[in-house]
């Protein structure tokens, strides 16, 4: 149900809360924002679509902050800091990343208020809890905003350091040598049919959180999580192998999480908008599907990088047909005797 189809009183309450969060009153239509920013409406609409904003038609749904943000981005284009394509890419990255972040924070915050007893457990954010939720959010918003900027700056600093150290940071169309890893929970589809939704959500959250911690601690970069699966990359094959083994060891200590299987492949990888693409990514996914529960399969190139490292043991398997890759001989990765 869209807001325009809600009862008038509830719609007015939602609008009031939105304005409190944004920090300004809805005073402008999209045409007025474009006019005040001094740009054609279509230019403004392109940027808004890149950010993931819905088309609000002729509604009065914009604030002074929207005018200022539009001017800021378009001024960067005008003075030559960004070309239009770069501006759209950057706004799309902001829109997609922060949309998921906002949903994640909303769910976590609502759950926190429920556990505190500040709001009643409900299916979603009910009308009766909106005022309490908004008051709590008003109180926490300045600190949450400051933390968001801090974490972003930290992440940007880490990305710059990683690119400088590895010679990566490739431009569009250029690939870099990486090891790609997939890890997924065994039997997730069966569990999704059997477990109540709230228990399934806790299981997925636990798997994602622990996996993300292991990847970060191991020097990898978590590319994305998709329910029962995580995708990560590392600049060294040794880091990827250690992450794979630690994923098995750590999840095995938690009886609530099913066994995990992992696939690793090393090769040229194209990075784009925070995601990764290419045959190496596809191969890692295929190997994950072929791995036994609790096991890790790696491709021959990964095995070649690890062959002389006594921390790891690699056991060859018979050649097997892999869709899109012909017959491939995978290797089973396990912990060696010289583990740290």
Please, could you describe this protein's structure?
The radius of gyration is 24 Å and the shape is globular. The protein has helices spanning 8-22, 30-37, 41-51, 64-78, 84-116, 130-166, 188-194, 197-217, 237-252, 279-290, 300-306, and strands spanning 175-185, 221-226, 229-234, 260-272, 275-277, 296-298, 312-316, 320-322, 326-328, 331-335. The protein has 2 domains: 3-143, no CATH class; 170-335, 2-Layer Sandwich (Alpha-Beta Plaits), CATH 3.30.70.1230. 54% of the residues lie in helices and 17% in strands. It has 340 residues and is α+β, with helices and mostly antiparallel strands. Helix 2 (30-37) crosses helix 4 (64-78). The relative contact order is 0.07. Strands 1, 2, 3, 4, 5, 6, 7 and 10 form an 8-stranded mixed β-sheet that branches. The chain has a two-stranded antiparallel sheet with strand order 8-9. The N and C termini lie far apart (55 Å).
Quickly list its features:
340 residues, alpha+beta, Alpha-Beta Plaits, 2 domains, two-stranded antiparallel sheet
Oligomer: single chain
Q: What count of helical segments does DSSP give?
A: 11
Q: What is the fold-level CATH name, i.e. the topology of the largest domain?
A: Alpha-Beta Plaits
Structural class: alpha+beta
Name given to the CATH architecture of the largest domain: 2-Layer Sandwich
Q: What's the CATH class label of the largest domain?
A: Alpha Beta
How many beta-strand runs?
10
Head-to-tail CA distance between termini: 55 Å
Q: So, the CATH homologous superfamily of the largest domain? A: Nucleotide cyclase, GGDEF domain
Secondary-structure element sequence?
HHHHHHEHHEEHEEHEHEEEE
The shape is globular
Low-confidence segments, ≥5 residues, pLDDT <50?
Answer: none
- pLDDT averaged residue by residue: 84
Q: Radius of gyration, Cα only, in angstroms?
A: 24 Å
Bin the helical content. Answer: 40-55%
């Amino acid at each position: 149900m869209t807001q325009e189809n809600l009862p008038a009183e509830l719609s007015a309450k939602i609008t009031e809360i939105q304005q409190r969060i944004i920090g300004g009153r809805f005073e402008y239509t999209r045409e007025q924002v474009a006019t005040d920013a001094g740009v054609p409406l279509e230019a403004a609409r392109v940027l808004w679509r890149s950010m993931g904003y819905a088309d609000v038609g002729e509604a009065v749904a914009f604030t002074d902050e929207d005018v200022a943000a539009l001017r800021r981005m378009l001024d960067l284009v005008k003075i030559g800091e960004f070309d239009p394509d770069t501006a759209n890419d950057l706004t799309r990255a902001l829109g997609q990343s922060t949309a998921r972040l906002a949903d994640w924070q909303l769910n976590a915050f609502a759950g926190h208020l429920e556990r505190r007893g500040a709001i009643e457990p409900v299916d979603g954010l009910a009308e009766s809890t909106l005022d309490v939720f908004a008051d709590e959010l008003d109180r926490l918003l300045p600190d949450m905003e400051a933390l968001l900027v801090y974490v972003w700056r930290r992440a940007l600093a880490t990305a710059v350091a990683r690119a400088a150290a590895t010679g990566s940071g490739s431009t569009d169309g250029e690939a870099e040598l990486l090891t790609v890893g997939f890890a997924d929970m065994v039997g997730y589809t069966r569990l999704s049919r059997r477990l109540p939704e709230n228990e399934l959500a806790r299981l997925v959250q636990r798997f994602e959180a622990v996996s993300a911690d292991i990847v970060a601690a191991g020097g990898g970069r978590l590319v994305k999580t998709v329910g029962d699966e995580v995708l990560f990359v590392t600049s060294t094959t040794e880091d990827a192998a250690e992450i794979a083994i630690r994923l098995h060891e750590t999840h095995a200590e938690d009886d609530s999480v099913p066994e995990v299987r992992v696939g690793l492949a090393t090769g040229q990888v194209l990075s784009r908008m925070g995601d990764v693409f290419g045959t190496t990514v596809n191969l890692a996914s295929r190997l994950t599907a072929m791995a036994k529960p609790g096991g890790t399969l790696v491709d021959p190139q990964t095995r070649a990088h690890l062959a002389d490292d006594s921390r790891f043991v690699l056991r060859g398997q018979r050649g097997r047909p892999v869709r899109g890759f012909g017959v491939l001989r995978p290797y089973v990765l396990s912990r060696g005797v010289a583990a740290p």
